[in-house]
Design a protein that fits this description.
Blueprint lengths: L6 H17 L5 E7 L2 E9 L4 E3 L1 H11 L11 H22 L2 H31 L20 E5 L2 E7 L1 H21 L5 H19 L29 E5 L4 E4 L2 H13 L6 E7 L7 E3 L4 E4 L11 E4 L2 H11 L2 E3 L1 H4 L3
Helix pairs in contact: 1-3, 1-5, 3-4, 4-5, 5-6
C-alpha cells in the first residue's frame, strides 16, 4: 500500500510551492562592499534572472583592478534558473496534490542536490571573477586575487566584503529545512495532531532564526582582527569597540577615536539609521564588550590609547572611579562621546 502524507503536511507543500514562485520576484543573494570612501556601502543583488544594486559603480571599480565587468547576458544561469525554480514549484504542488511520501522523498533529494550544485557553480564563478584578471589593468598587486567570500566576510584591499543569502536565499534554506522535517516525521510515522502542529511550529521557528540578524557582539581577536576605520591590527583589548548594523554586520575598532570617526562618516552619508548596536570593551575586569546604553566613559590623557582617543568604557561607575582615582580624568556619558 502506498504511503500517504497527512493533510496538514500536504498544505505545507502547497505553501512551499507558493514560496518557490515568490523567489522569482525577490533577490536571492547579496554581496556588500564597505570601505572608508564608501561608508554607506555598495551592494550587488543576484536575482533568478538578473543583477541589480550598484552594478555600474562596482563595474567602474573592477575596471581599474582588471576584474571582469558584470552583465546579466554573461550568465547562462539566468536563462535556466527561472525554469528550475518553476520545476520545483510544480513538483511541490504535485506532491501536495497526490500526497505520496515517495514524491516527498524525491523532492528532498532533488532539492538538496540542486543546492549543492548551485553553491559549487557560484564558487566557481567567484573564483574566475576574482582570479582571471586583465594583465593590462591600471592597478596591479602582485599575487593578489579578489575572489569574494562564498558566504560570510573577507577583506579585499581596503574593502570589507560580505556575502550572504537575501530574501530568496533564505526562502530556499527555509524550504530545505521544512522538507527535512517532513521526511523525518514521515519516517517516524507521526500521525497525532500535536505532532503535525509541531512540524509547522518548528519549521517556522527555524526559518525565522535563519532569516533574523544577529546584533550580539563577537569577541575581538587580538592580533588577528583589524580596525575597520584605520585598518591597524587590534593589539590591546582594553580599548576595542564594535558597531553592529541592523542586518547583523560587525565592524571592529581599536580605539574610541576610530569609532567616533566612523560614526561621523555614517552621519554625513545619512547611513546612521542602519546602526543596530554599539559596544565598547570594558577597561576593567575581563574586558567584556558592553552596550553603550549601559556604559560609562572616562577620558584621560594618561590612558594612551592606540589612536589617541584616550576614552575608555566601564560597566559601572564604581569601576570607573577606581581607575579615575589612580590616573585622573573626566567621566563622560555616550552623548558626550559620540560625534557632535
Amino acid at each position: 500500500m502506498k504511503q500517504k502524507m497527512s493533510g496538514w503536511n500536504r498544505l505545507v507543500m502547497v505553501v512551499c510551492a507558493a514560496a518557490m514562485v515568490l523567489v522569482l520576484f525577490v533577490p536571492m543573494w547579496r554581496i556588500d562592499l564597505v570601505a572608508p570612501q564608501y561608508p554607506e556601502g555598495l551592494y550587488l543583488l543576484i536575482h533568478a534572472d538578473k543583477l541589480s544594486g550598484n552594478v555600474d559603480i562596482i563595474n567602474g571599480l573592477n575596471h581599474y583592478i582588471g576584474m571582469k565587468t558584470l552583465h546579466a547576458d554573461d550568465f547562462p544561469e539566468f536563462t535556466i534558473l527561472p525554469y528550475i525554480i518553476g520545476f520545483f514549484a510544480l513538483l511541490f504542488l504535485i506532491t501536495a496534490i497526490f500526497g505520496r511520501k515517495l514524491l516527498l522523498n524525491i523532492s528532498l533529494v532533488l532539492f538538496v542536490l540542486f543546492g549543492i550544485i548551485a553553491m559549487i557553480d557560484f564558487w566557481k564563478w567567484e573564483y574566475d571573477y576574482g582570479h582571471n584578471l586583465n594583465p593590462d589593468a591600471a592597478i596591479k598587486v602582485p599575487g593578489m586575487s579578489y575572489q569574494p567570500p562564498l558566504i560570510g566576510y573577507k577583506q579585499l584591499l581596503n574593502f570589507s566584503a560580505y556575502s550572504m543569502p537575501d530574501i530568496g536565499g533564505w526562502i530556499f534554506v527555509g524550504i530545505g529545512v521544512i522538507l527535512v522535517v517532513l521526511v523525518f516525521l514521515s519516517w517516524k510515522k507521526a500521525r497525532k495532531l500535536k505532532v503535525r502542529k509541531t512540524v509547522i511550529a518548528t519549521s517556522c521557528l527555524m526559518m525565522f532564526s535563519l532569516a533574523s540578524c544577529n546584533t550580539e557582539p563577537t569577541p575581538l581577536k587580538i592580533g588577528v582582527d583589524h580596525c575597520d576605520f584605520c585598518k591597524m591590527t587590534i593589539s590591546d583589548n582594553k580599548f576595542g569597540a564594535e558597531l553592529i548594523t541592523k542586518k547583523g554586520k560587525v565592524f571592529k575598532f581599536d580605539d574610541s577615536h576610530c569609532v567616533v570617526s566612523y560614526l561621523s562618516l555614517l552621519e554625513k552619508s545619512s547611513s546612521s539609521d542602519n546602526i543596530g548596536a554599539i559596544y565598547f570593551t570594558n577597561y576593567s575586569g575581563d574586558h567584556e564588550l558592553i552596550n553603550i546604553d549601559k556604559a560609562v566613559f572616562l577620558q584621560s590623557e594618561a590612558l594612551k590609547s592606540p589612536m589617541g582617543g584616550n576614552i575608555v568604557a566601564f560597566a559601572s561607575k564604581s569601576e570607573l572611579d577606581a581607575v579615575k582615582n589612580r590616573i585622573g580624568g573626566t567621566m563622560l556619558n555616550w552623548e558626550q562621546v559620540k560625534p557632535k
